[in-house]
Structure formats: structure tokens, C-alpha cells
Specification:
globular, two-stranded antiparallel ribbon, 2 strands, mainly alpha, single chain
């Protein structure tokens, strides 16, 4: 005779289980966030020494800063390029891997290994591979196209190189989730569609995309966060925000303002604004996607 399983209803036990997570969140997330907001209300000297309380003056200064406006627009364009490029390429690769019957694991490992590289290492490797004068990839591209790719002096080329590098770095993460999502689609739907003569592209668009939409929304959110925050090592190692500020993303600008120009108050204000902007983007993406997502087969 089996014993009846009782529901877990201990409030104290649940609180104790959640306590380690709450401590980590408070110590490493909420408390630093409050300190950052507090710092944004001060004008600071070297190493963050508080000089004077200025209230919202740092935020008002950002509203009137042309350099900040330019960096903001560049960051938005960069995020849109990285998110769209990563999703399109990773979906294409994942769909090809999904159809492979022999050696799928080998191809999958080959597709995801760039994600395993630390971003700083990836930035260093890509800098040498894509260097305008020393890079082997640049050499062959110029030999085949006849176009000089001097992205050390061309702002649009530098933007494109950093964006492509960010897409390449993030592909593996997306491919893993998309292959898993595609494998969860019922085989009966695939077989029925093939019997009806549905082609591969139409099968992807009409059958697979609606069924894996929750995964796509998750990846849009993750890729957006990555584009705004995770591309800092690539910019720092490859372009240092140049040329002429063409790759001066918000995350890199606030770093320079804080640690090169010792303007920690302004940098803290920039970090708060960046957090609010990304949070609003997440909210909009989730609210809009709720109308189109499909849960269940």
C-alpha cells in the first residue's frame, strides 16, 4: 500500500530554501544597484570620492550631451543588427543541423564552440584574423572582391566588423536552444507536412516557427541583453570605441567616463539609464510577443 504524498506547505522551509538565492541577489545585485543610483546623484572626484550632491544634474547633462545621444543611437543600431543577425543565422544553421541524420553531435559541437571561448579571447583572435593589414580573412576578402577593408579608419566598416564578431560569438548559444526546440516538435506534424508536399522553407515558416516561438522570444531577450552589455570586450580590444566614435557603445562610453575621465557620477547615471532602457525593451518584447507565441503542440 503506497503512502499518500503530502503537498509541501512549510512556509519556513520554503523561506530557508530561498534564503541563499535572496542573499546573493541582495548582496550582488540589489545593493550595488542602489549604490549606483546613489552615486549618480553626486559629482565625484578621482576614485569615486564624493564632491557634492547635485541631484538629477548628471541625468540632465546626459539629455543635453550630443556625444551621449550619438552613443545611444549607435547602441540601438548595434543591438538591432546583432539580435536580428544572430537569430537569422542561428536559425538557418539549427535547421540544417536538425535535418542531419549522421554525425549531428559533431556538427553541433563545431557550431557552438565559439560560444565556449571567453569574449576577451574571441576578441583578440578576431582582431588578428580581421586585421586590415595582417588578417588572413581580410586578405582573402580583399583579393576576391577588390575592396579595401580598412576598418581601422572607416567608421561603418568598424561597426560592421564588431557587429559580425558579436553575432559569431553568440551563435552557439542560440543554436543549442533552437536545435532542442526543433527536436521537441512532434514528428507526426513533420511527416504529415512532407506527405502533403510542403517544402523545407515553407515547413520552417508555417510549422516550426510557430511551435518554437517561446524559444525565439527567449533568445530575443537574451540577445538584446548581450548586445547592450556583453559586447564590451569586443569593442575594447578591437576598436576602443573608434574610429570617430563609430563603435562607442553605451557600455563602453560609461566605462571610459568612469575609469579614464574619473566621472563616476555621470557614468553611474549612464548605467541607470541603460538599465532602464533595456528593461523597457524587455517589457515591450514580452508584451508584444504574447500575442503571437504558441504554447504546446
Amino acid at each position: 500500500m503506497t503512502e499518500t504524498t503530502k503537498p509541501y506547505d512549510s512556509t519556513l522551509g520554503a523561506a530557508l530554501l530561498l534564503l541563499p538565492t535572496l542573499v546573493v541577489l541582495v548582496v550582488f545585485l540589489y545593493y550595488p544597484a542602489l549604490l549606483t543610483f546613489r552615486l549618480s546623484l553626486f559629482q565625484t572626484l578621482l576614485l569615486g570620492t564624493e564632491r557634492a550632491f547635485v541631484g538629477l544634474e548628471n541625468y540632465v547633462g546626459l539629455l543635453g550631451s550630443g556625444a551621449y545621444h550619438g552613443s545611444f543611437l549607435i547602441s540601438v543600431a548595434f543591438a538591432a543588427t546583432v539580435v536580428l543577425g544572430t537569430l537569422v543565422v542561428s536559425l538557418f544553421v539549427a535547421y540544417l543541423l536538425f535535418q542531419v541524420e549522421v554525425g549531428e553531435s559533431t556538427y553541433l559541437v563545431a557550431a557552438i564552440w565559439p560560444y565556449a571561448l571567453p569574449t576577451a579571447v574571441a576578441g583578440t583572435v578576431l582582431l588578428f584574423l580581421l586585421h586590415p593589414t595582417l588578417g588572413i580573412i581580410t586578405h582573402y576578402v580583399e583579393a576576391l572582391t577588390g575592396v579595401e577593408l580598412d576598418w581601422f579608419t572607416s567608421g561603418p566598416l568598424a561597426f560592421l566588423v564588431v557587429a559580425l564578431s558579436a553575432v559569431w560569438k553568440q551563435l552557439g548559444y542560440n543554436i543549442v536552444f533552437l536545435v532542442a526546440a526543433l527536436n521537441n516538435v512532434p514528428t507526426t506534424l513533420t511527416e504529415s507536412a512532407k506527405l502533403d508536399g510542403v517544402g523545407h522553407l515553407r515547413l520552417l515558416r508555417r510549422v516550426y516557427l510557430p511551435l518554437i516561438s517561446p524559444t525565439l522570444v527567449f533568445l530575443v531577450v537574451v540577445n538584446t541583453i548581450y548586445a547592450f552589455f556583453g559586447a564590451f570586450p569586443l569593442v575594447d580590444l578591437m576598436t576602443s570605441g573608434g574610429p570617430s566614435g563609430a563603435t562607442n557603445l553605451l557600455i563602453f562610453k560609461l566605462y571610459r567616463d568612469a575609469f579614464e575621465f574619473s566621472s563616476l557620477g555621470s557614468a553611474a547615471a549612464q548605467s541607470v539609464v541603460l538599465f532602464v532602457v533595456v528593461a523597457l525593451l524587455m517589457w515591450v518584447q514580452l508584451r508584444v510577443s504574447d500575442r503571437y507565441m504558441h504554447y504546446g503542440a
